[in-house]
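Long-time lurker. I teach an intro course on protein structure, and each term I like to show students one example going from raw sequence to a predicted 3D structure in token notation. This year I'd like something fresh instead of my usual example. Would anyone be willing to generate the tokens for the chain below so I can use it in lecture? Attribution to the forum is fine with me.
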Amino acid sequence: MRTISLKILTDAIEMDVPQANAEMQPRHIVIRYDPDQSIGENLENIRVKLVGVGFDAIIIENPLTYPFSDTVVGLNHQRIDIGLALTNLFNVPVLARPTVTKDGLDQAVKAKQTYNSWHLDYYGEYQGKRNFGQEAMLTLGNGYYGLRGAYVESRADDDNYPGLYVAGVYNQNTTPVNGRDVVNEDLVNLPNPQALTIGIDHANPFQIRHSGITDSYRSLDLKTGKLTTTLMVTIGTGHQMMVRATKVADMRHFHRLAIRYEFTPLNFAGSVQVYGTIDGDVVNKNVARYNQFDQHHITVTGMASAANKALLTGTTKNSGIAFAIGSKLTSPNRDLREQVKTTTGAKAIRQTVDLTVEPAKTYTIDKLVALFTSRESGETPLDTAVWDELDEVSFADTEKSTAAFYGEVWQGDDIAIQGDTISQKLTRVNIFHLFVSGAALASNQLDASVGARGLHGEAYRGHVFWDEMFVMPFYATHAPKIAKAMLDYRYRRLPAARAYAQSIGKQGAMYPWQSGMKGDEQSQFVHLNPLTNQWDPDNSRRQRHVSLAVAYDAWLYWHITGDDQYMKDQGLELLLSVAKFWLSMATLDKTTGRYHISGVMGPDEYHESYPNSDEAGLTDNAYTNIMTAWLFQLIGQLKPRFAKHGYAAAAKRAAFTAHDFAQLDVVRRKLTLDVNDNGIIGQFAGYFKLPTLDFDAYQKKYGDISRIDRILKAEGKTPDAYQVAKQADTMMAYFLLDPATIEGLIADMGYQLPADHFSQNLEFYLERTTHGSTLSRIVYAVLTRMDNRRDQSWQLFHQALFSDYYDIQGGTTAEGIHLGVMGATLYVEESLYGGANLLGSQLRFEPELPSQWQQLDYQLHFQGAAVAVTADHQTLTLKADQDLQVKVADKPIALTAGKAVTVDYR
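-- Reply from a regular --
Happy to contribute to a lecture. Here you go:
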């Protein structure tokens, strides 16, 4: 095993690098620390010096001794966990020499690799959006609530934001803006139940301030669902303590949260107070650009206490959702029922435990939380529900319950990657957050879906978008009850979708671009441009294609699970209602005999209307028309299957007539695409008349041009006037459907495309796309791989996988993770790299492992069968729990229940 040795000095880094000839002495390299560069830039110099050098591990010769990490060092009078930094740089384990000496090199490497693949760690205290982003990434939750991974000692300020959100709890406020009333519906930031802190000798409680924190280490254990934060604290009086908070969201009893608070006095004895608060003095202020609106969403209505328990009740101001949050303070080694003192303020209730302490001894207080709202609690009084839950909850039970839940998750839903530790970790981070965002939906007790930013922050106001479509494949193949609950949410809002269609003079059901509590349109009419600080018109509500996404989700869930009962009870009615809407959107040009769909926007989002036009929206968006044709064809295929059981009843509920059905085939064959002489499909009618934009010039001037729309508007221009795209639009259908399906739909429309049309269209649109959305990269990662552009595909996938971890959009992760791209990366890993094609009537496999990976293991469920998959660069091993016919590289394979079959797919 080849290792690099590093010794960290105050102003330099010394390295011993092995030579190609193992008999030669290692090269000794000294890298001087440049104080004019950041720590990251200085560490980058290590990579430059090691270009072309192969090695398996890095050993730090002189680390500092800490209880939370063995690779913390001092460099230029600052402490950093150099292990975290170098692991990200080189994707190899970084070891401490004392650990290697104690355990041996092989064991130390194995242990560190395992740790790195199961933990998301941050060292140091950060400010502003960087810390906000880490809080989002460290969010705990269970699909009922999400609790941002803030310090328990923090309150909301410029650097910390301890938000709490419950699925489906929205409130609408009205704010006067520029002479008009603007109504916003927000996912409500509820009272902070995680507040815990410490005081000495009844002095002011400790607060999160940079001056008082010597060290900070936060570690999310993905395997067990525990978030542990360790602080080395120095009070202004010189008192020193180590404080550790361990948070666990109960994944099975979803009204419960448990926090273990441990502190160790290091240099003093005396009196210490532990303060636990339920803080109702909160507003929604995670997203700065929303602060011009009224963000006060709750009213505290009452407080109560009994022994070691406390309760705060309240209601949302306009939606009238009541909530109750309770806490109980306990200790594993003392009875606190008579030792807790409770005090109340105007909007907060505080519990205090007074302890006499000794140095070097650890003291433990558990804060146990229960929360309920009127949306899911039925007739039970909320205070009764909270008191009863508090009687049942303990830290040990919550810890055990959650560990068991994640044990099942990782046994059945893990995607195991060999040869790439960082990709493995971030894959598990994404799986973790999909369950944080959706697990409780499987209970069928909640009327909610998963928002585009999960339950992790306030961006997009917590609304539900087409992003459901990007997480549906993972949920449908791994957690179908969650997928079904998402569709239940949409079905319950089918009346609202019908009313929305009627409001614009159309028939059928038109789902809103942004959906919240009731399913009415929550998109705004104005949007703040941060470059100009001006309010620009927002026409995003014209992304009518969201209805096609809902329809696609309904079909995909049914197709993957084989849930015919869903299709009979809900799915057919939803599909027919959406199809009726698109029939009413299509207008016939009697001159050409073709149908057109006008007044829409595509996924691109940069194009809202035609330049110098008084009409809003665009005509014949290619993605919209192709997916509409797909939906019409799908219904024609479904009707015979459900003719005896379900179709007639669904058609009646959807007011879908025999004439409507007949029109499906007529319209889909005559929908219009704008195809030029080279076989390029225009993004919309008139697209080819727009000029191109000089990306090179704009990059030289502005650097990051991912949001070129904002740049152009700041220059007094409009993206409507250029061939420029935020994300995949025309090519988006190829991400969702088999190429043969798309080509058949286009051929049925009467268009003949050249043999190389896919490559030509891909190149054309890549040159015009700025990837202003995280979803763009993951979609194009698939499309470029389909075109055999392996390096480009890997680069795009890698950027998407790292997008929230590195917050590549410059602060957006601070406002919540991007759940769609997280789900999509998992889909790509299984379907593209793992080779599982779920779109046909039969499972097909054709793995395409990245060269950086050695092996990929995963499981999936398809039409009642559970299939375990192991793929390397040569062979594919499949094992099903029932007899199953599949194809591997177009070769039929018969699987026998319980028997593994290995196939050479090359």
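Some talking points for your students: The longest strand covers residues 363-373. Residues 273 and 354 are 5 Å apart (CA to CA).
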